Amino acid sequence: MDSTTYLFDLLKTILPAIIVAGAIFLLFRQYLEKEQQRRLIELRLDTSKTTLPLRLQAYERVTLFLERISPNNILVRLGSGGQTAADYHRLLQQEIRAEFEHNLSQQLYITPEAWDQVKQAKENVLTMINRAFHGLSNPGQLRGTELAKRILEGLMTDAADPTAHALDVVKREAARLF
């Protein structure tokens, strides 16, 4: 047997083995990739089962916050009975800031755009209250009901609730979760 015949016989034996080993390697690699994708999908599904309720709760709490600080609701909830306009102004500001601080953690679960709208709504309400307060002549002598009246007048002239846009954004985002 000469060396070329030996080499040819060797190639006839080794070449099919290499082809079969390569095919097995490719199939095994595809299997591992698909298995990894399946595990990632399972992990995402498990994560969404945990985070979806938290996100929905965050949207609910932010919606409640916006409803509670809307001028119509906060004025009814925090009656001005017997207070001066200056005291009522301070009370309104404190309540809005306390409500906001109570809901700060919700920003973890909603989009940054929605959270920016929530912050802007809070600032809009505070601005409306401050504008009404500073529009009063001698607020230390006037009753809180006069401030409430001015705030409501400002709300009517602006023709838009300062929390309405943020509330709309939050509701649209919450609806996208379904």
Automatic annotation (TrEMBL):
Pfam families: DUF7935 (PF25589). The chain crosses the membrane at residues 6-28. Keywords: Membrane, Transmembrane, Transmembrane helix. InterPro entries: DUF7935 (IPR057695). This is Uncharacterized protein. It comes from Hymenobacter setariae.
